[in-house]
Every structure is written in C-alpha cells, then in structure tokens.
Design a protein that fits this description.
The complex is a heterodimer of chains A (423) and B (319). Chain A has 423 residues and is an alpha/beta fold. In chain A, 48% of the residues lie in helices and 14% in strands. Chain A has two domains: 189 residues, 3-Layer(aba) Sandwich (D-Maltodextrin-Binding Protein, domain 2); 199 residues, Periplasmic binding protein-like II (D-Maltodextrin-Binding Protein, domain 2, 3-Layer(aba) Sandwich). Classes of the chains: A alpha/beta (423), B mainly alpha (319).
Chain lengths: 423, 319
C-alpha cells in the first residue's frame, strides 16, 4: 500500500512537472488562424503544410483559397467592418502602399528586428524584403513568395533560325520578327486585354526599355518621351509578331499560346515556369529555356519582381497576432520554405534556396531567378495607394493603342491627364 | 362580445385593460394586423430599404474604404463627377444600347419560339425541356465558354471565322465594332429561352373559344395573330420585357468574363464601371452614385412598362 502510494505520488509529481513544460513548448496550443490566400500555385501547398505546423505548435491554420478580386474585396470588407474574419492574408506586392496608408495590417518592423537572428534576415533577398511588404519605413507584410520576371523562349525555333538568345531588348524585338511565320508561328506574345492584363505586361516592357510610370517627383509621368517610344515598339510587336488574338489575351490566353507552341517567346512570371517543362501541360516541353529578360541598350539591368507577402490583421487580439507571427517565421524558415518549394510552390525567398543543390536539380532555372532577384526592381509597378487607378487608366489606354483606336502619344496624353487628377 | 362589419371596417366595444388605458377592439385588431405584417415589414426594411438608403447616403460622401478617416460630405459632387466623366457617359450609352439590342433580339426570337411550341406534342415538349438548358447555366460560365469558342487563334468558332476573313483577325471580341453585337448574341443565346417561356405561358392562357370562333369566321392566321393573339398577349409581353430589361441593364458576369469592358471602352457597361469603382478602387461614394443612377434608370423603365401592362390588361379585358 505504502509502495503504491509512493508510486502514485511520483506519477502525480511527474504530471505536474510535465504540464508546464508542454505549455511552455506550445503556448498557442488550440489557437486557430484563418488565412486568406490568393489562388496561386502556393495556395494548395500552404494548405498541405498546415498539419505540420499544427504538429509543431498546436496552432491550427485554416487556408481559405480565393481569387484575386475576391481576396482583395473580402479582406478589405473584413478590415473595414473590424469583423476579424481573417487573421492572416497574402498581400500582393502592389497593395503595399494601400495597406501601409490604411493601417489595416500589423507593422512587423519591430518583430523583425527582435527576431532577426532567428529569421536569418541576411539570407533573404533584400529586394524581396523591401518590395513584398516594405513601404516607407513600415513592413506591412513579410515576404514569402518572390516571383521573377523572366523570358521564356523556344530553343528549337531559335536554333532552327540560327539565332542566339537576346542580350538586349532590341535583339529580342528583332528575333521576334524573324521568328514570325503566320498563321502557325509567332515570334512574340504578351497580354493585350483591357485592364490589369495589358497594363501589367506593358509596364514590364516599358521598364526594360527605359520608361517609367512615375517621374522623379513621384507624380505620374505617363506621357514621357521614353514611355511613348516604348509603347510604339510594343504596338509594332503586337501588329507584326504576335498572334492576331493577342490584343484580347489575358494571362491564361498568353500562357496557353506559348504552351500550345503558337508563340516563340514571351516574358512571364517564374511561378508558372515548371508547367512549360512538363509534357502533361505543355506541347513544347523539352524545347523551352528561361533567361533573364533583356534590358534595352544602355538601360541598366533592372529585372521585374513580383509576388506576395504574408500580412497580419491589425484587428485581432495580441495572442493571435503572436501566433500569426510564429506561423510566418515557421513558413519562411529555411527548412520549411525549401520543403514548400520542393512541393511545387514556385515561390522563392532565400538566397540559400536558389543555390540549394536539391532544388536546383529539380528546377534547373533557379540560377536565372537568383540573377533576377539580385538585380531586381519591385517598383516598376508603383507600389503607391493610387496604383489600382493608374493601372486601370493604363489598361484602357494601352489596349486602345493595340487595337488601333489611338496612337501612343494621344493615348498616353489622355492617360496622364486622368492620372494627374489622382494626386 | 359581438362585432359589426361597417363599410368594410370592423368595430366593437372598447376593452378595459386593468391598470391601463382603454383599447378599442378595432385598435386591438389593427395592432394584431400590424404585428402579423411586422416580420415581413422588418425583413423588407432590413434587406432592401436600409441598404438602399445607405447607398443613397454614401453617394453624397467622399468615402473611400482605404481612407475611411478622411470621409467628408460633398453633396452632389459624385453625381456631378459622374456626369462630367466621359467614361461614365460612355458606359451609360453602352448599357442602354446593349439593353435595347439584347431585349429586342430576345423578344423577337422568343416570340417566334413560343408560337412554334404553342401546340402540345412530343416534339414541343422535348424542345421545351432543351430550351431550359441555357437558362440554367451560370452567366460567368457562359462568358468563359464563349470566350474560348470565339478566340481568334485557337477557338472552335473564332479560328475559322478569322481564317476565312469573316471576322477581324483579332476575333469578334477583339474588335470595337463587333464586340458589343457579339455579346448581344451571347446574351440572347442564354436568355431568349426565358423570354420564350414567359410568352408561351401567356399563349397557353389565351381563351381558345375566341380563336376557334375567329377561325370559323374565316380569319387568316396573320389576322388572328394581329387582331386577337397579340393584343391578348400584351400583358405577358410587357412582363417579359420588364424582367429582361431590368436584368440586361445590370448585366455584369458575361461582360466581365469575356471582355472586361474592352476592347478600349467598347463594352464597358455601367455595372463593370460600378464594380471597378466600388470593389477595386474602394471608392464607395462614387460607386454608390453609379448604382443610384442605375436604380433610377431601371425604375423609369419599370414604371413605363407597368403603365403599359395595365393599359394592355384593360384592352385585353375589353376584347
């Protein structure tokens, strides 16, 4: 009896001793975080990784996968109504200005400073840290999915035509004309559809040709000489080297025309690149290479950066904010983020990732992404609060030029007048 | 405790409530009726009237969800800006053009289909069932399907039309001259059956004795249609027209999924413009002004159609 009593006491003491240890290990055990995620390649991987995070921390992450407009509308409604429906959300690079101005998300600056060693900030590409959530001294989101703008081209068509991969934008344009053999083969394709599709693609080419959306004073300079020149080149490319329907293409149409073998080259986001190399999704698998998008002659190396940061809703209570920060640190930690990409997220962040032998063996184009991130420019689409309106104005003006409704100067003059009203 | 019915009104002796004022039986009945209607009234107030009033109120403010702290009363400035804005005026004209064209096409073909299916038979019943298919498809899906079919470079229809030179090389949706007419055809594909069903229901309800008498009197089919069928069908016609006009004026899904308002501004209807202002730029005040303009336009159409329905009803009853 005495022995039993001693054993029972020992068991009780052990239990008491263990309980605080468990609570200290998992202080957020039982917390549920709801994450509003853009329906990009990373979304399903986020959902797949959630159980691992629960095992590690006891925190349950529910991933709500939404389309782009849905994501923006639902999260904004959540912020305005203070309904705390979402604890975490993925934030597009171009929303930084809006989010910073409205104060809807937590400023992570102090937490990043506090946990810099744990995060290993030096391993994160500086351009991604600055662009995917950084805005005028605030860090309204933490980067987790960096996309690189790259040139995808058909190696078979290039070698058949005796062409070398382009070193400058001028080479790329000349190659596009040489590779155009209608109606089965076109040398170039880009988005032409009115709205964000054509605006975003043209801003990319415009940047590479030395144009800029904002002037040195931070105000719109849409009808600058460089912009008019670049739009003239863009229009000529559409007229002479793009599939006839390209003026109505959005991202889906553009990608499809490349994967179907209709277009010989296009600039695109690196996130979709694995699809070109798979025979299941592409008719041109084995005949494609990626390279950095060539800048115009005399234009410094500036490669387009896009992607997503992870933001925390400023309305939620402190415990949830800390749990959400723990999730961000976990997701972007080297080991988990590598796993994230091995599972096909196509969303790079760390220097160690693009040099990781296992990842490079699986995705041989990673050195191209590294080069883009090293010389990356996240500002060619101005990350200012007025960006959505400017994008819309340009989306109408550039499309009008492509379909022959206006000449580049007239269209950009009109766009400039409209954009100036926003400031 | 009897009560009397006087001139349609119910009256009765007053009832004394202990410790309170006397409430007449009539008043109690009125309260009872009000209570009976209260849930429906509250529902309508909460679901329809309150948001509508909020929308009207917002339209007088410079209210952006991204700058809620800077919200300011600006009177009719949003409406003035709407009137001064070329894009907004163009959207109004595009919407009115689309509505008129789509409803006209749907009415003409809907009436023809309804007349063809009027008589009962196996063929008519099978056709009627098949007619319902387009109506059941979600408009966004209709838009996406037609977008794929009409794509000039790889669409099942668009490729051949472009290759044979029957369309602009950019395709029907890529040309400012053909984009809106093409969307009228797409809308008509989906909604003509709906128009036909309403008109068919109207035809089925016509009294057969009058038509048989006219036939016996030697009236030709054209005379029967012009003098008897059409006037008696007018209530159904106006009902179909008012329903489709209201719907066509606020069209969004098909336009959003096919052209997103382009090329240039050729298909930029009011709803696309309002959604962009409200849900992309979060200019709630300006978007509310656009929505209110749409409500006013739809209200004018509806009142005009309802007046016509009443007149037609009276004429039909006189026949």
């Amino acid at each position: 009896m005495n022995k039993r009593w001693i054993l029972a006491k020992a068991a009780a003491v052990s239990l008491i001793a263990l309980t605080p240890a468990r609570a200290a290990d998992k202080p957020y055990d039982g917390v549920t975080l709801t994450l509003a995620s853009q329906n990009d390649q990373f979304a399903t991987v986020l959902a797949d990784l959630a159980p691992k995070f629960k095992d590690a921390t006891g925190i349950n992450v529910k991933v709500d996968i939404l389309s782009y407009p849905e994501l923006l509308t639902k999260t904004t409604a959540d912020f305005v109504g203070h309904t705390k429906g979402y604890d975490l959300l993925t934030m597009d690079i171009v929303w930084s200005g809006q989010f910073a101005e409205s104060g809807y998300t937590v400023d992570l600056t102090d937490w990043i400073k506090r946990d810099a060693a744990e995060i290993n900030v030096d391993d994160i590409y500086p351009v991604l840290m600055a662009s995917l959530g950084g805005y005028k001294g605030k860090q309204v989101a933490f980067p987790f999915a960096g996309y690189a703008n790259v040139l995808a081209y058909r190696t078979d068509l290039y070698s058949a035509a005796g062409l070398k991969p382009p070193e400058t934008m001028e080479d790329m344009v000349a190659n596009a004309y040489k590779l155009t053999v209608p109606p089965k083969q076109y040398g170039f394709v880009a988005n032409g559809q009115k709205g964000p599709a054509v605006a975003q693609d043209w801003m990319q080419y415009n940047n590479e040709m030395g144009g800029s959306i904002l002037g040195a004073d931070g105000k719109p300079a849409l009808n600058s000489e460089a912009n008019i020149k670049s739009l003239t080149v863009y229009k000529a490319l559409f007229d002479k080297a793009a599939p006839p329907g390209a003026a109505d293409y959005d991202w889906g149409g553009r990608e499809e025309s490349f994967r179907q073998g209709l277009a010989a080259q296009m600039q695109t986001w690196s996130v979709g690149a694995p699809g070109y190399f798979s025979a299941e999704t592409s008719k041109v698998a084995g005949k494609v290479a990626l390279m950095v998008a060539p800048p115009g002659k005399g234009v410094p190396k500036k490669y387009g950066i896009g992607g997503w940061g992870m933001a925390i809703n400023a309305d939620i209570d402190q415990k949830k904010k800390e749990a959400a920060w723990l999730y961000i640190k976990w997701l972007t930690s080297p080991a988990v983020h590598k796993d994230f990409n091995l599972r096909g997220a196509g969303s790079y962040l760390r220097i160690s990732e693009t040099h990781d032998p296992e990842l490079v063996a699986k995705f041989p184009f990673l050195p191209v992404i590294d080069e883009v991130f090293v010389h990356g420019d996240g500002e060619y689409r101005p990350r200012i609060p007025q960006y959505p309106q400017i994008q819309d104005i340009l989306g109408t003006a550039v499309n009008a030029v492509l379909i022959g409704n206006a000449d580049p100067k007239k269209a950009l003059d009109g766009a400039q007048t409209e954009a100036a009203k926003l400031f | 405790m009897g009560h009397a019915l006087n001139g349609g009104r119910i009256s009765g002796p007053a009832v004394a409530v202990p410790g309170g004022p006397k409430i007449s039986h009539r008043r109690r009945r009125q309260i009872f009726l009000v209570l009976l209607g209260a849930p429906a009234l509250i529902y309508v107030l909460a679901i329809a009237i309150w948001p509508l009033a909020q929308g009207v109120s917002y339209s007088f403010y410079d209210y952006s969800l991204l700058r809620p702290a800077k919200t300011a009363f600006i009177g009719f400035d949003n409406y003035r800006a709407l009137w001064a804005n070329d894009a907004a005026r163009n959207s109004l004209v595009t919407t009115a053009t689309f509505t008129f064209a789509a409803v006209s096409v749907e009415f003409i073909f809907g009436l023809a289909i309804a007349l063809l299916l009027w008589r009962d038979g196996l063929f008519q019943r099978v056709c009627l069932a098949l007619l319902l298919i387009p109506v059941t498809v979600t408009p966004v899906v209709v838009g996406l399907v037609f977008r794929a079919l009409l794509a000039a470079d790889y669409g099942l229809i668009g490729y051949y039309f472009s290759a044979w030179g029957w369309s602009n090389p950019r395709g029907f949706l890529g040309d400012t001259a053909t984009a809106l007419p093409t969307l009228v055809v797409v809308d008509a594909w989906q909604w003509t059956p709906f128009m036909a069903l309403i008109l068919l229901a109207g035809l089925k309800s016509l009294p057969t004795d009058i038509l048989e008498a006219a036939e016996a009197d030697g009236a030709t089919p054209l005379q029967r249609f012009r003098i008897i069928i059409l006037p008696m069908l007018l209530p159904a016609i106006f009902l179909a027209l008012v329903l489709r006009t209201m719907d066509a004026f606020r069209v969004f899904d098909i336009f959003y999924s096919t052209t997103n308002g382009g090329p240039a501004d050729a298909t930029n209807v009011l709803m696309i413009y309002a959604v962009k202002q409200g849900l992309e730029f979060f200019n709630v005040g300006f978007a509310s002004a656009i929505a209110n303009l749409m409500i006013i336009c739809i209200a004018i159409f509806s009142v005009a159609f309802i007046a016509l329905i009443r007149r037609a009803d009276r004429r039909a009853n006189e026949l």
